[in-house]
Design brief:
Layout (H helix, E strand, L loop, with lengths): L14 E9 L2 H10 L10 H5 L10 H17 L4 E10 L8 E13 L6 E11 L5 E12 L6
Antiparallel strand pairs: 1-3, 2-5, 3-4, 4-5
Length: 152
């Protein structure tokens, strides 16, 4: 069973392609919007969506981000002690119900933790693409990752 990478297993410049992909449905989109109290009609009202510049409903941006983070967990943060932050989140193209997302993550940097000698900090950039290969979202995140032999 793969329980993820230790700090030592990350190499700067390494790229992990995540699978499987995930097709987002309108039901997923509405449920996520309801769970997060996002009441924007562009996510749940087809008639409103038809009148928008997109001509239909779009997927809630936080849902897109959440799916892309989730896709990366097995390869990047399965062993993480904590997520330390996300930055430079960019939604570069709309995501529509029915789109299938794929993603990949590049290791940007790593360093020993100053406060926790048994762990290190790994920073990555995850890029998400739709079925046509269009970049729809890109973001960076940093995680506290245990060093080998010290996480129980």
């Amino acid at each position: 069973m793969n329980l993820g990478r230790y700090f030592e297993d990350f190499d700067i410049g390494a790229v992990y392609e995540h699978s499987p992909g995930r097709t987002l449905t309108q039901a997923d989109n509405i449920w996520f919007s309801l769970l997060t109290m996002n009441q924007h009609p562009l996510h749940c009202d087809e008639e409103y969506g038809k009148q928008s510049e997109f001509g239909r409903c779009i997927v809630s941006s936080p849902f897109t981000l959440a799916v892309l983070v989730g896709m990366s967990v097995r390869d990047v943060s399965q062993r993480a002690i904590a997520n330390l932050g996300w930055r430079d989140i960019r939604m570069t193209a709309p995501v529509f119900p029915g789109d299938t997302l794929r993603s990949k993550t590049e290791v940007l940097q790593k360093r020993d933790s100053k406060s926790r000698p048994q762990a290190g900090i790994v920073t990555v950039r995850t890029s998400g693409y739709n079925q046509d290969g269009t970049l729809v979202c890109v973001f960076e995140r940093s995680m506290l990752i245990p060093k080998r032999g010290v996480d129980g």
